[in-house]
Amino acid sequence: MCALLTLSWTAPLAAQQPTGTIRGRITDNSTQQPIAGVTIIVGNRSAQTHDDGRFTISGVPAGSDLLRARMIGYAQINQPVMVGSGDTVAVDLALTAQAIGLSEVVVTGYGQQRAGNITGAVTAVADSQFNTGRVISPQLLIQSKVAGVQVVDNNDPGGGLSIRIRGATSVNASSEPLYVVDGVPLGNGAGGGLSAGRDPLNYLNPNDIESITVLRDASAAAIYGSNAANGVVLITTKSGGTHQKPQFEYNSSASASSVTRLPAMMNAAQFATALNTYAPARDTLLLGASTDWFGLIDRTAYGQEHNFAVTNSTSDMSYRLSLGYLNQAGIIRASSTKRVSLGLNYSQQLFNDRLNVHTSVRGSRAVDQFTPGDVLGNAAAMAPTQPVLDSSSATGYWDWKTSNAAPSNPVASLTWARDHGTTWRSVGNVQAVYRAPFIEGLTANVNLGYDLARADRTTFYPNNLAAQVRQGQGLLFLANNSQTNEVLESFLGYSPSRSYGPGRLDVVGGYSYTQSHAEYPSLRETGLTTNVLGDNGIPVAGNVQNRRDIVDYKLISFFGRLNYNINDRYLAAFSVRRDGSSRFGPGNQWGTFPSVAFAWRLSQESFLQGVSGLSDLKLRASWAKTGNQAFQDYLQYPTYTFSDGQTQVQFGNVYTTTIRPSAVDPNIHWEKTTAYNVGVDFGFSNQRFNGTIDWYTKNTNDLIFYIPIPAGTNLGNYVTTNIGSMRNRGIEFSLNADVLRHTGAGLSWTASLTAARNTNELLAINPNKSVSKILTGGISGGVGNNVEVLEPGIPVNSFFVYQQRYDASGKPIYDPATPTNMYVDQNGDGIINDSDRRPFHDPSPKWILGHSSYFNYKRFDASLTLRAYLGNWVYNNVASANGAYQNLTGSGMPSNLHTSVLKTGFVVPQYYSDYFVEDAAFLRMDNITVGYAASYRGQQFRLFGTIQNAFTITGYSGVDPTSGLNGIDNNIYPRARTITTGLNIRF
């Protein structure tokens, strides 16, 4: 930066001669709106237009010359001018758009760029393209909108979401992207921060969001260094607009949601037949009822939302103040979310527009009710022949009277158990940008931000619930977690209108300091002596555990970026970030993360000037290294666990409490991802048809694994350490088209299509081969069963199962006396054991396809979004755990059966059969919206209706083919179909 400033100060001085000044304003020829960032050149003097489209060029030699106005996306104008000595000449020009999309401003890390000059894989989604309907979590706004981005929700209203950008980059560390809201990085690494159980980003009202930009490739994200391995999501909230008087906006909607699919369990008649056949001695247990347990726990869930905003702007000030209220019930009883949110954006221009101060503050309070954790599983397993109520029981609900394992009445849990949380959160910042008067193009930037969160969670199970009686417990759990994050960033930007060599510079260099303090106090009681206090007090209990974890974290960073632009034809971008993290021990705290990217706009070369219809063709190539530090703190130090009443060591007749140290690797450090990207941007007919194609590969080294170690070493059986590597490769394609352009009141249709393929491979776990595979993917049924594996040469979390044999009719063969008839003997040793399990598919989709269409006709508008996954597989754990007749004859009371047993005939559960690994490819209509806009007495309004999850076409037999990232369908929360109607008013 200093060298660049020196160059600007020592530029050759022109010979003394009479000079004048040129002032003017540049606007768009069709909209008459000012255009910022236009380059104005007269001789060897140049300038750029400001936000109001105005420019000033001083020191122009007297005489006649040619003024050139140029900006990507517009046709260049050449205007003759005559400047007299000491005179000021006014020149106002209107530019004509040629490929307007190329001139749009896109938010990137620590700055903005014109879309046409971006060298990396960056996708910006504006609010006009967002998904519609009842959207609680902001990430769902861009589901199916960005190639290579997978958004996975858990169906719970506002439930936790996961985003994968170009696949998972880690096994034990987080693979979530870094979220940056109005310049404030959330949390203390990847992910959205702290919450009481629902998605952390729910504090942010989707109605307040103006755009979401996804930095998909490493070169675009590398400016964020050690937090950028999983990509970066930049969220920009709405500001004050351009009108010159207060404008009010009110949005209101109401919705109704219903269950689309439930587990295929036996009805009362089928269950009675099965019990009489396989456990006839127990037929006296049947009480003759016909109970639909899922029908008793699900419901039509209603919701409402109200948003109010006021905006205003003047020549030097703008603001937007918003207030939102959301109340959404879940389709499973006892689940709901309520949110009150408040937001303010305020901008002020000072000192002749040289200083711009912008403040953004957002706060919310969310109250979440959760369905007790055993309700869905018990609704599947509870016998449908048993009644709901029993006036003689302590709870008033019928339950099996046994001390052995048995399903419990899910309605009793819904009535008496409690699980709820409250999250208070505020995120805000103050940004100041000062445009230096003494060096043209030099700006100083300061960003001071905070992220404050408090999350309270209470869980209560009374001791008279059937499951608690059998366990002799009752449970009370209280947590009062808090997290405070502070960030200070200061950086200089230098983007002069003059050229250095054949091109123009855009340089950024700065410093960032982030600190976080979090406290996680909790109380856990079991063996409750009374239920009188419910969840409103702390009763005497048999076992009491208190915890209070305190975590402090700091990240110090130095970063820089240099962009070089030669006539919008040859583009280069270089960045580097040096991060120091307290998350690692001495000698491993610092890391350097560089990137380099180049682009060549072939469409401006002479040999392509005559190609009819071609408006843009740009080649891009990049390389970058990023890091991942999104895992537990203090892993480089041993931690000590104090014994409690249940964990003591016996010496003779004396029980002694201990302090147990953990195993530790003092040299643990962050994971490193090296990525390559090659892309093509193209456009035809003035960008009426445009798109991108990207190919990438990214390799992650020093993966963090939790691995077993030899007994008696390192004071533990497992240790967290850096071993192993992983690779993701893929191709992405996106196409946007104005299929039918708007003419008068006629029909217009714009459409977009995205397609992305990603393949993942775990390359190595341990270079020394001491660990060849690690089992993961725990399931219900049995004890400690895992159906997924981490093994070199295959995708992470591949299913690890036996190869099922089938008869001529396609029925699985069940022959427990001769297991080799049931399963393929992979190693030919004549027995079936773990050595015969083999990797069989994985949960991640190989192709993700998305399509959106937007229609307008007179006052009517409509939109739709389609999504498809191909190559994704799901393990149906509801079927494997409940699909065996042994569930009728075991020591526990008979539990309901999954209807798959009618086909398989399994008597003993076959948890490792690949029969339960199902092809979960699907096509889903995510939303359809129809609207009508008009005005009444000069006030604009719009009525709309939306259907979300309109239909799903899939061969998967379970509840939902999008069964989380691990692909295990274990009594997951069902997906809802939601119908929303609403009204938008502006006045």
Describe, in plain words, how this protein is organized in 3D:
The chain has about 1000 residues and is mainly beta. The strands form eleven sheets. The protein has a 22-stranded antiparallel barrel. Helix 5 runs antiparallel to helix 6. The chain starts with a helix and ends with a strand.
Structural class: mainly beta
Question: Describe the biggest sheet?
Answer: 22 strands, antiparallel, barrel
Strand content: over 45%
How confident overall, as mean pLDDT?
90
Number of helices: 10
| Unreliable residue runs | 1-15
Give the helix proportion (percent range). under 10%
In short:
This protein is mostly beta strands and 987 residues long. It has a 22-stranded antiparallel β-barrel. Helix 5 packs antiparallel against helix 6 (410-416).
Topology (elements, then pairings):
Elements: H1 2-9, E1 19-28, E2 39-42, E3 45-48, E4 54-61, E5 63-70, E6 77-83, E7 88-95, E8 105-108, E9 111-114, E10 122-126, E11 149-153, E12 161-165, E13 178-181, E14 184-185, E15 209-215, H2 218-221, E16 232-237, E17 247-259, H3 268-278, H4 293-297, E18 301-313, E19 317-329, E20 336-350, E21 355-369, H5 375-381, H6 410-416, E22 418-435, E23 442-461, H7 466-471, E24 475-494, E25 504-528, E26 541-566, E27 570-581, E28 590-601, E29 614-628, E30 640-642, E31 649-651, E32 654-656, E33 659-661, E34 671-684, E35 689-701, E36 704-708, E37 718-722, E38 725-740, E39 747-764, E40 774-778, E41 786-790, E42 798-801, H8 819-822, E43 838-839, E44 847-857, E45 860-870, E46 873-876, H9 877-882, H10 901-904, E47 917-919, E48 922-936, E49 939-954, E50 968-969, E51 976-986
Parallel strand pairs: 1-7, 13-16, 46-50
Antiparallel strand pairs: 1-4, 2-3, 2-5, 5-6, 8-9, 10-15, 11-12, 13-14, 15-16, 17-18, 17-51, 18-19, 19-20, 20-21, 21-22, 22-23, 23-24, 24-25, 25-26, 26-27, 27-28, 28-29, 29-34, 30-33, 31-32, 34-35, 35-38, 36-37, 38-39, 39-44, 40-41, 41-42, 42-43, 44-45, 45-48, 46-47, 48-49, 49-51
Helix pairs in contact: 5-6
